[in-house]
Design brief:
Layout lengths: L2 E3 L23 E3 L6 E8 L2 E7 L22 E7 L1 E2 L13 E2 L1 H6 L4 E5 L5 E5 L2 E5 L15 E8 L3 E8 L4 E8 H4 L4 H9 L3 E14 L5 H8 L3 E12 L2 H9 L3 H15 L3 H18 L7
Parallel strand pairs: 1-2, 4-5, 5-8, 6-7, 8-10, 13-14, 14-15
Antiparallel strand pairs: 3-4, 9-10, 11-12
Helix pairs in contact: 5-6, 6-7
InterPro entries: DNA_Repair-Maintenance_Comp, Metallo-depent_PP-like
Protein name: DNA repair exonuclease
Organism: Eiseniibacteriota bacterium
Length: 299
């Protein structure tokens, strides 16, 4: 099976001690080293021709890889392999050294398929008859690369038809979960442990975020020690604050400014859609109640 390698922006071929300069590659492995997106070998596979292209990043030479690209000659398929950053949002800050590419450039490239590297999660782009794909890492490398990971198999047929198959591959799974004490009816440590272990597994790498008002005291370190053996790896991020829920319910029922504040804030908390929004509303509740305890303020 032919194999194609291209050095990326973190392992540039231009480095004097680049690992690629020391490799002894077996037959059938093609290392593409041009600092601009240029033609590589032309392969014949099952009586069809595949023209390969690649770029090896050189900070002194490499620029927008698709900016002035034109495909070479006639082939059944034109396939490029490159490490570049898709500019898919004007707000994203992408450096020139990231080798930026745009959807319009993909559409105008005339390439059948672009095998992309840079982003670690799966992205599929179909523009102007060209298909560009970030396959994603085979294993999650950090939180944010959560869930199942896949080996991507792209099948090219009929000249311009590209089908994708994602095969489950990872041996460990990263996930981030939140447990909100305010809505989860957690009133004792045993119940908390049960909620955390619901996410357990010997293949699971989990970050558990605890948030909201807790009406009992607990030590996150002790909780972690009690359940960590049920996970491959566990992190507990404690964002809770101690609050007597009975007292909070009493405040909520008051026909006072404090009661109105608690009702409105708890309603906002229940409707919060992101961890950041929940954290902001929770902080507002804590600070607001602290102010109502100030003897100079009426309730």
């Amino acid at each position: 099976m032919p194999v194609v390698l291209v050095p990326g922006t973190h392992d540039a071929y231009s480095y004097r001690r680049s690992v690629y300069r020391r490799l002894r590659l077996p037959e059938g492995v093609h290392l593409l080293t041009d600092p601009r997106l240029a033609p590589g070998p032309r392969l014949t596979i099952q009586d069809e021709t595949v023209q390969l292209y690649g770029i090896a990043f050189d900070p002194a030479v490499s620029a927008r890889p698709l900016g002035e690209f034109t495909r070479s000659g006639v082939a059944d398929y034109h396939v490029a392999v490159l490490h570049g950053a898709l500019q898919d949002n004007p707000a994203w800050k992408i450096r020139a050294s990231d080798l930026p590419i745009e959807r319009s450039e993909i559409a105008a490239s005339g390439l059948t398929y672009l095998a992309l590297g840079h982003y670690h999660n799966f992205v599929e782009v179909r523009e102007g008859g060209s298909v560009a794909v970030y396959p994603g890492t085979l294993e999650g490398r950090k939180f944010g690369e959560d869930g199942a990971r896949y080996l991507l198999v792209a099948t090219l047929s009929g000249g311009d038809d590209v089908s994708l198959e994602r095969k489950p591959w990872n041996t460990r799974t990263l996930s981030q979960v939140s447990i909100d004490f305010t809505s989860a009816e957690i009133h004792e440590e045993r119940r908390l442990l049960d909620r955390i272990t619901a996410f357990a597994g010997d293949r699971e790498i989990v970050r558990v975020r605890l948030e909201g008002a807790a009406d009992f005291a607990f030590e996150p370190e002790r909780v972690d020690a009690s359940v960590r053996e049920r996970f491959f790896h566990l992190e507990i991020d404690d964002r809770t604050f101690l609050m007597d829920k009975a007292l909070l319910g009493q405040f909520q029922d008051e026909a006072t400014i404090r009661g109105a504040f608690v009702r409105r804030t708890l309603d906002r908390l229940a409707k919060a859609k992101t961890p950041q929004e929940k954290e902001t509303v929770t902080l507002a509740l804590r600070l607001g109640l602290a102010e109502f305890q100030n003897p100079h303020h009426a309730v």
